């Protein structure tokens, strides 16, 4: 007779699902064992955290015990941090000091990462380099077809990011050549474009803010970077609060949590109150249900809804431009932003109301007609952006079928656009209710 295994099976499945939701322990993996041993040699002791793989965020750090508000999450000794000081005390130091015009702190760190990665087994930083991502999903690394699917303001910033790395590469080639005595291979093959792109993304996505005194051998750009092995495995959550700073007394970089965290739960930190476009641009990821997220309205989109025959149109646009009301116009979870509605009110001023533009900019009500027109136009813009977003989501699903190699990058843009759609639909609902109320 068969035993009824239904309930036990369900229990086991639930337990397995729970452990998967909490995270799968990865501390037994060789790369993490080597990293922890390497950090211990530099004075790092840790019993609060362990590496794990999480369902939503990928790899991160799991709490080995419950954490209370005010608890120290991690304390990483100065010896473990990779800074421009580390670079200057390496064999690159002499070359950097002699080079004119001085290199930037950012380029010094990029050069160090590329050189150490090339050194392979001989690099004292190998245990750290082995756990760094092999590739990144910052807009600078995205394919041209994928960049074209980004919202307009982000697409522009992504292109600027790409051009900035290209310019850094172009302007650094002679400096890279000066390092030839240090290498058996040609520096042109070691310090190639993809190596610099990888190093730049590593620094841009993973460094902690740490101010260093200016050194004459560096250019005047701020020297505020530090790579923090192990600590940089902590993922971002917009819903947590932490205190993070370098402690001069303990000579360690410390993070304290202002939130509670259960045992075996993922420990997260907050990289700042960033919207999803900023998170994707700076870190290469998107946060679902991000309370700080918003959808940007470009000046072109805004002006499409106002007649070119309006005699005061030019003056209105000039006013908005001078008072910086053509940027950062958004729809959020709570509807159109005050800035967006104010810009719409200025553009909606009648000929007889135009003299009131200063009061309108300060938030005064000019007339019921003006208020209503601004709301109507906001609703039209919102519906236009909903259609545009739905069209892009359709293009993405088509491309996912056709271009297998772009799937991970397309999935990222799909997440961004899906989140945008949710925000716009919520805004449309709010505007509909406002119109009903008036």
Description:
- Keywords: Cytoplasm, Inflammatory response, Methyltransferase, Nucleus, S-adenosyl-L-methionine, Transferase.
- One of its GO terms (molecular function) is histone H3K4 monomethyltransferase activity.
- One of its GO terms (biological process) is methylation.
- The chain is of the alpha+beta class.
- Among the domains are: 146 residues, set domain protein methyltransferase, domain 1; 144 residues, set domain protein methyltransferase, domain 2 (Alpha-Beta Complex).
- A five-stranded mixed beta sheet has the order 1-2-3-10-7. A three-stranded antiparallel beta sheet has the order 4-9-8, with no helix packed on it.
- The N terminus is likely disordered.
List keywords for this structure.
set domain protein methyltransferase, domain 1; 17 helices; 12% strand; five-stranded mixed sheet; 438 residues; three-stranded antiparallel sheet; disordered N terminus; single chain; alpha+beta; set domain protein methyltransferase, domain 2; globular
């Amino acid at each position: 007779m068969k035993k009824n295994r239904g309930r036990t099976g369900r229990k086991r499945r639930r337990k397995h699902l729970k452990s998967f939701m909490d995270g799968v322990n990865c501390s037994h993996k060789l790369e993490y064992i080597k990293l922890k041993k390497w950090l211990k040699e530099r004075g790092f002791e840790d019993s609060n955290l362990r590496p794990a793989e999480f369902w939503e965020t990928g790899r991160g750090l799991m709490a080995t015990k419950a954490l209370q508000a005010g608890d120290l999450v991690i304390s990483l000794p100065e010896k473990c941090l990779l800074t421009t000081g580390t670079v200057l005390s390496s064999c690159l130091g002499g070359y950097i000091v002699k080079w004119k015009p001085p290199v930037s702190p950012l380029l010094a760190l990029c050069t160090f990462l590329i050189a150490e990665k090339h050194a392979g087994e001989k690099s004292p930083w190998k245990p750290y380099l082995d756990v760094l991502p092999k590739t990144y999903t910052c807009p600078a690394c995205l394919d041209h077809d994928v960049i074209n699917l980004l919202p307009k303001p982000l697409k522009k910033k992504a292109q600027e990011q790409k051009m900035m790395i290209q310019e850094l590469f172009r302007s650094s080639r002679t400096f890279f050549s000066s390092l030839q005595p240090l290498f058996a291979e040609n520096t042109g093959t070691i310090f190639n474009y993809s190596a610099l792109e990888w190093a730049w993304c590593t620094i841009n996505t993973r460094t902690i803010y740490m101010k260093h005194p200016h050194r004459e051998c560096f250019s005047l750009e701020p020297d505020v970077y530090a790579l923090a092995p192990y600590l940089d495995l902590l993922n971002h959550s917009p819903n947590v609060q932490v205190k993070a700073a370098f402690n001069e007394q303990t000579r360690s970089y410390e993070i304290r949590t202002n939130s509670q965290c259960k045992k075996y739960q993922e420990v997260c930190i907050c990289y700042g109150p960033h919207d999803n476009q900023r998170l994707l641009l700076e870190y290469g990821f998107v946060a679902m249900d991000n309370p700080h997220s918003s959808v940007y309205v470009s000046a072109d989109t805004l002006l499409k809804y106002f007649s070119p025959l309006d005699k005061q149109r030019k003056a209105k646009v000039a006013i908005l431009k001078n008072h910086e009301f053509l940027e950062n116009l958004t729809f959020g979870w709570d509807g159109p932003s005050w800035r967006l509605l104010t810009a719409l009110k200025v553009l909606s001023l009648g000929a007889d109301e135009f003299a009131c533009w200063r009061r309108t900019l300060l938030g005064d009500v000019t007339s019921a007609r003006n208020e209503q027109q601004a709301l109507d136009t906001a609703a039209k813009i919102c519906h236009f952006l909903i259609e545009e977003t739905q069209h892009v989501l359709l293009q993405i699903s088509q491309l996912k079928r056709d271009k297998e190699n772009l799937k991970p990058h397309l999935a990222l843009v799909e997440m961004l656009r899906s989140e945008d759609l949710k925000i716009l639909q919520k805004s449309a609902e709010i505007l509909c209710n406002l119109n009903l109320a008036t």
